[in-house]
Specification:
6-stranded mixed beta sheet, Rossmann fold, 6 strands, alpha/beta
Amino acid sequence: MIMSKRRTKIIFKKVRDANLKYKMINHGDHLAVGLSGGKDSFTMLYFLHLVKKYTPLDFKIFPVYIDLGWENDLNPLVDFCNSLGMTLFIEKTGIAEVVFEHRQEKNPCSLCSHLRRGALNRVAKGLSCNKVALGHHLDDVVITLLMSIIYEGRFNVFKPVTYLDRMDITIIRPLVYVEEVDIRLFADSLNIVPVKNPCPVDGLTKRDQLQPLLEFIEKQYPGAKRKFLSSIENANSQSFWL
């Protein structure tokens, strides 16, 4: 219990600091919180709940799950939302059928992600939300950077806050300062049960392949993940051949 409270304070501070730096949440915001059923999104929802409870910010939270058509058991997710005084909005889709049966994509993740984001944004607009919160954490930031360098030969990474003018909606990532290990230990301390992911390529993506490399770098050079993040935040035109 002591460890849980300590880790809660650590994660809360990182979420608060990221929010203060990038002004992700403002008074009157309506947030559609994208839940995948994994530990990351469970944790994100929990700490957004704490931000609402323990800071002066006045905003509303709408948990949303995009059902790809796998017929998952969503009871753990429904119960978790209820425990926080929230109702889970479930949007049923046929995305899995489109990606794996009709299109039979060799690299399905890009199309699946695109369709899921589109569905999430449409639900958010239907709920009169002006922002969508995604559960990307610090490890995701660094791995995205590594993927961009290794596979694309360029320096590119998602931003903490992104405005989509075509949808008139803003994407925020409240966990960008939080390491995956903190999320895992926190979720385990609360006995959070993730929703099983039946996707046939789960654990086999390029992102999954780079995770061991990142862990190796972190083990050899403790604090390297945060140094990567710092280098992204401190990048400027004088640092590159532009």
